[in-house]
Amino acid sequence: MKIFIDTANVEHIREMNSYGIVDGVTTNPTLIAQEGRDFAEVVMEICEIVDGPVSAEVVSESAKDMIPEAEELSKIHRNVIIKIPMTGEGLKAAQICKQHNIKTNVTLVFSPTQALLAAKAGATYVSPFVGRLDDVNHYGMDIVENILTIYDNYDFDTQVIVASIRSPLHVLEAAMMGAHVATIPYKVLKQLLKHPLTDIGIDRFLEDYKKIPGK
Ligand code: G3P
Asked: What structural domains and CATH numbers belong to the chain?
């Protein structure tokens, strides 16, 4: 499973990238706004850190306006993936982007049938938001399982990015289901990395090392 980091914080991206575990990055307008920096400047800096897909989201609501916006974002760096909302206009834009060889990530997906339509429109990636579904009392990972089955049934090339991840268990389930990608917030990546028994084990080994004669 590919691991993307779901943030626009370049320090966090740099740290996780230094561990050799980051295959790409996803951003959205909320995450970029949190950084208080120029949009294009942040996306460019992220692309210089991680050599992989970096999602940047359009904010236009009509396909007519999304296309020039997508073209502008694509000029920032060759690795930019255009994040497009799952609407009728978004699907039109995804289809046109595919014709122009611009890769897309259809986002804000909350049902397997939305994901089916996104794949038919030619999305490169689709992002089901599992945490936000959990928030409204709907088991979010269920839709990931259904999307994977649908894509497998019909050999769609569209890759599933499990998004809106809130806990290490979401990541575990995504990997067990064979999701193509999990986009993971920094805090959850930290949680995945740490285990109290690892820390206890290191402390004990270091203490015991001191007992070795001559050390
Ligand atoms: O990539 C989409 C993701 O950032 C949404 O996460 O936590 O705002 O639901 P969240």
From this structure: 2-210 (3.20.20.70)
